[in-house]
Amino acid sequence: MTADPDCLFCKIVAGDIPGDIVHTGERTLAFRDINPQAPLHVLVVPRDHEPNAAASAHADPEMFAEIATTARAVATAEGYDDYRLVFNTGAGVGQTVFHTHCHVLAGRPMTWPPG
Ligand code: AMP
Ligand code: ZN
């Protein structure tokens, strides 16, 4: 699967709806979360539509690794050495957009375990 016409993040990838884009890669895109939960809150997404991290990792392991390196590049560019990566996987743990995305969060103290 490459694009889902009903998917919000596919529309951002296609440029059909605007995103505050901070990084453009061949296979990934990173844009600021519309409802930031930290001073840095960026979403790194694959351009190809898959519903969650596990599906993306299965479909394209190299691209999935690129998500992690893109996340580091974004955090570094914004001046953060320390950051948290989150892949909500499934509605039961809070996934609301079913296009794989990695939350990159930084810039405030964070507790563990997460809420
Ligand atoms: P999740 O709950 O893990 O599925 O995360 C979805 C994220 O997408 C949430 O943090 C939302 O704030 C974010 N979001 C929803 N719509 C947009 C949008 N148009 N542009 C950027 N981020 C969005
Ligand atoms: Zn999509």
Automatic annotation (TrEMBL):
SUPFAM superfamilies xref list: HIT-like (SSF54197)
Which GO terms fall under molecular function for this chain's record? catalytic activity
InterPro entries, alphabetized = Histidine_triad_HIT (IPR001310), HIT-like (IPR011146), HIT-like_sf (IPR036265)
Designated name of the protein? Histidine triad (HIT) protein
Lineage at the top is: Bacteria, Bacillati, Actinomycetota, Actinomycetes, Propionibacteriales
